[in-house]
Design goal:
422 residues; ten-stranded mixed sheet; 11 helices; 16 strands; single chain
């Protein structure tokens, strides 16, 4: 929605809006918000809304939330009397300069740099989640809501009504769901989004998780985006598709057999750096239990035909070719994930090395310790992420590993540390 602050203030007044949620994403991919009353909105537009940020960054004590007026959206599951709307916000320092750990602003700036070089990008996501029953105290259990499997229908698929409500809510908010279905695991679901500009795609991903959890709760269920919630079932992936154009021309050509040299270089760049950025795409200890199970990738490889490859070229008749990255999961911060994948591909183009795109076949990091070590020793990571982001992020991964030492096994740690929250 593209309006001026005056038009938005009028919309708030005419539509009985009583609460305005100013939302942002922390470094770890968690959506946060402050709700303000309508009479505070004018100040939010002009000066920002201050909040204590020490919980997120110990070196900073106060930041400003500055609403992005183009992201206004009504929350459809809230009452129509006393409506609730939300904005995504930029994070600013008290002197109104950009806060360096605000990855939404960082991604916006990077996309603008790419535009100056003639590149444009569209990103789409396919994100899986499980629906679990609640116990008599309304606490989440590990009992799947159904026993359905891949593409099943009712009565095996008991989740279809929940998916319907989720998709309707997404549409009402101006998000762009394309399709939905039951996935391989019992109670496992997927919603597929239409392609969008990278920052909008990341915004959609953040609110998608909130909408899924909110609608599930209204239906008396618990939605989990934990990468591997059930030990003996398929894990949940976040598949990310990229279409890149240079001066209006798709760099992946028109068909798999006409992949351009620039497209090959972009893929090679991702294959070369994917191990170094895996900690950011898969930021939980539980993430690594998913690799190699079912159709989840284990090797760092590319294919135009094999749907299980880590990077695959999707070229369906009538649809512009795009590549899909299949290793990420929904625990990631999408602004960080999109930035690093794009930067790796662009680096590959700049280096002009297409040699890896068909031949690379090393394994993904097998655990968090290995992934953290690779990221920490990566010049590429430090060149493409602000120092404050890497400091906060790596400390968090260290904390996870330290806490895990108090547990007898990874499964019990994951159930306590991730399952109730992701």
């Amino acid at each position: 929605m593209n309006n001026s602050p005056k038009e938005i203030l009028r919309f708030v007044e005419e539509n009985d809006v009583k609460f305005i949620r100013l939302t942002f994403c922390d470094v770890f991919g968690n959506l946060k918000n402050i709700a303000v009353m309508p009479n505070e909105l004018e100040q939010a537009f002009s000066c920002g809304i201050p909040f204590d940020s020490a919980k997120f960054d110990s070196s900073s004590h106060e930041l400003l939330l500055m609403p992005d007026i183009s992201t206004l959206s009504v929350l459809p599951w809230r009452p129509k009397s006393g409506r609730v709307v939300r904005f995504f916000c930029s994070l600013k320092n008290p002197d109104r300069t950009d806060y360096s750990a605000d990855m939404r602003t960082n991604l916006t700036n990077y996309i603008n740099e790419l535009r100056l070089c003639g590149y444009s990008c569209e990103i789409s996501t396919r994100c899986e989640f499980y629906l679990f029953d609640l116990d008599e105290k309304s606490e989440p259990t590990k009992i799947p809501h159904d026993k359905g499997g891949y593409l099943d229908v009712a009565p095996l698929d008991k989740c279809e009504n929940v998916r319907r409500e989720i998709c309707l809510s997404l549409e009402e908010m101006g998000l762009n769901p394309k399709s939905s279905c039951h996935k391989h695991g019992p109670g496992q679901n997927e919603i597929d989004f239409r392609a969008n500009e990278p920052v909008n795609a990341a915004d959609d991903m953040m609110h998608y998780k909130t909408i899924v959890k909110s609608i599930a709760a209204q239906c008396g269920l618990f939605a989990s985006f934990m990468p591997k919630p059930l030990e003996k079932e398929h894990g949940s992936a976040l598949n990310i598709s990229f279409m890149i154009k240079k001066n209006g021309e798709n760099i992946f050509g028109k068909a798999p057999d006409s992949l351009t040299t620039e497209g090959k270089c972009f893929i090679s760049g991702i294959l070369r750096r994917i191990g170094e950025i895996t900690a950011f795409l898969n930021p939980t200890v539980n993430s690594y239990s998913r690799f190699g199970v079912g159709s989840a990738p284990k090797k760092i490889n590319y294919s135009a035909n094999n749907r299980s490859a880590l990077v695959r070229l999707s070229a369906i008749c009538g649809i512009s070719p795009r590549i899909e990255i299949r290793s990420a999961d929904a625990a990631c911060n999408p602004y960080i994930a999109f930035k690093l994948i794009l930067a790796a591909g662009i680096e590959g183009i700049k280096n002009g090395d297409s040699s890896l795109y068909e031949s690379y076949s090393e394994n993904l990091p097998e655990n968090m310790e290995t992934a953290l070590e690779l990221s920490r020793s990566s010049e590429f990571v430090y060149a493409n992420l602000p120092e404050k982001v890497t400091d906060i992020f790596f400390r968090n991964l260290e904390k996870q590993l330290d806490i895990m030492k108090n547990y007898s096994d990874i499964r019990s740690f994951s159930d306590d540390y991730y399952f109730p929250y992701i």
